[in-house]
Amino acid sequence: MKKVVVTGYGIISCIGNSKNEVINSLKLGKSGISQNKEYSDMGFRSQISGSINLDLENLIDRKLLRFMSHAAAYGYLASVDAISMAGLDENILSSPKTGMVAGSGGASPRSQIIASDVTRDKSPKRIGPYAVTKTMGSTVSAILGTALKIK
């Protein structure tokens, strides 16, 4: 059995969204933790977070983004960067010999709350088909496998 190591990485974080941004933040001792107005508006006692600053609509095609939770979108962007850095092309990715392992800490709470609110306030029939991929626990691996054509 042959083993392959992808020597690339992607970073989406509160201190930067690229190798250079993160390195600069680390060198400067920059913290990505700050007061979160959204938490304040909701009345949370703890109002700090490490928020990610990205305009997903300008970075990911609309037709693909509609299936993604924020976690899946961040995973997708990081994966695209890692694949590019490793010099892999679509032929390698779509090969039956190529596999993928992707993990996440769980489904997207934001997407689950939105789907729950629509169910409660309107009807389960009003949730829409895109809510399924956004709320399932395997959203990151499902999106990556489909979007990157990994079998």
UniProtKB/TrEMBL annotation:
Question: What are the UniProt keywords, alphabetically?
Answer: Acyltransferase, Transferase
Q: Which domain of life is it from?
A: Bacteria
Instruction: Name the reaction it catalyses.
Output: (3Z)-decenoyl-[ACP] + malonyl-[ACP] + H(+) = 3-oxo-(5Z)-dodecenoyl-[ACP] + holo-[ACP] + CO2; a fatty acyl-[ACP] + malonyl-[ACP] + H(+) = a 3-oxoacyl-[ACP] + holo-[ACP] + CO2
Per UniProt, residues of the Beta-ketoacyl synthase-like N-terminal domain are: 2-150
A GO molecular function annotation here is: 3-oxoacyl-[acyl-carrier-protein] synthase activity
Q: Its Enzyme Commission number?
A: 2.3.1.41
Q: What class of enzyme is it?
A: transferase
Supply the InterPro entries for this chain. Beta-ketoacyl_synthase (IPR000794), Ketoacyl_synth_N (IPR014030), Thiolase-like (IPR016039)
Q: In which pathway does it act?
A: Lipid metabolism
Its annotated compartments are: Cytoplasm
Q: Which GO terms describe its biological process?
A: fatty acid biosynthetic process
Residue runs in coiled coils: none
Q: Which GO terms describe its cellular component?
A: cytosol
PANTHER family of this UniProt entry?
A: 3-OXOACYL-[ACYL-CARRIER-PROTEIN] SYNTHASE 1, POLYKETIDE SYNTHASE-RELATED
Q: Subunit structure, per the record?
A: Homodimer.
Q: What is this protein called?
A: 3-oxoacyl-[acyl-carrier-protein] synthase 1
